Request: fold
Amino acid sequence: MSEIQASSYDTVQCQTLRIPDTSKPRVVIIGGGFAGVHIARGLAKSPVQVVMIDRYNYHTFQPLLYQVATSGLEPDSIAAPLRKMLESQSNFHFRMATVTQIDTEEQRIIASIGSLRYDYLVLANGSKTNFYGNESIRQKSFPLKQLPQALDLRHHILSSLEQAILSSSIEEQDRLMSFVVVGGGPTGVEVAGALGELKLHVLPKDYPELDLRRMRIHLVEGTDSLLNGMSAASGEEAVKYLERFSVQVWLNTLVSDYNDDVVYLNNGTTIDAHTLIWGAGVMGNLIEGLNPASIFRNNRVKIDAYGKVEGYDNIFAAGDIAALVTEEYPQGHPMVAPVAIQQGQLLAKNLKKIVENKQELGAFVYKDKGSMATVGRNRAVVDLTDKIHFKGVFAWFVWLFVHLMAIVGFRSKLVVLTNWIWNYLTYDRAARLIIRPFVDVKNERRAEE
Reply:
């Protein structure tokens, strides 16, 4: 592209984004998740222009998505408008768009609403659900990575029970009241536990016409234990907790296909179920344009200890999309919120030093503060270190406190706490509302994440 063509193209497209011209270096951040928000905040007082681009205008506290999906919380409890979060930052600009390509030669990003030049680019666009190439599962299952997906699942669960009431066939009712959760990580375990609580404490009051004892919940995990990455003791406790909810746990088992409301397992077993919830894996939400040599396994981007993408001097990455390979983490760091937050905080400091021509950049060292998961009220497991492990009521209160403190905004903290107290005292789930468009969401072709 010639200089004249490039200039003309840039002028037209920048009018679309309407980002003010600046003599300061422009830092473009793709993604408003944990990493992106902490990077933007860390650059608040830096001599740069910060532009964040995300396809949604809000930040989501993803660890509690399952509570929205199972009617425990409303979506605004775990989401905060990005403009509100960063409104006091004079050097910050936000545009809602999907970035489709990176032009590294021209130093521009190409988005659904136009293109924009950058001086420094930060990839913080996270991860998406990995269906391992199974198109049928992709189209017909329910992933749980985004707020709209949580609302779709809530709509589907409640609508399935409404359909079951209208059915005179026992077999049809059983199919509509059968739920298969795939993936034995924290998301799968917490979803299965939440469904178990609904079955025992909430749904019998709402649907006295149905025999909820026939409601079936299955949790399918491909390895020999739940909560891989946590201690063996935590995985064993999770199985015991789930069995108290009558959840059938399938270990060393894979889902090979899902068609016509039949779940096919690799051991030859089939399960009739109207609902398949997919939490079996994630992959980097890769954007076209980077050199293939910069791409690591699972569609993640290789970075060095300072956050710089391999092969580039002005492109950086943090969070789920970034893979920092070390002896301790040969597959890259885990794709969890604490890693994204810590990488985002450090990268903001490093970018500030780069802009100010300071040479001593900080190297990333992950401070693992432990892992935890909950399996319903008074049931949780916590691993602080390899040797410090606890469970039960105390672990559950620790889980509540840690998640409550991590939620963005005082109002959201207050709303979540109030809901949790109400749910605990009354065994109720106030958000069981069918407010999505009444369409067969499961059978619609799903857009790419």
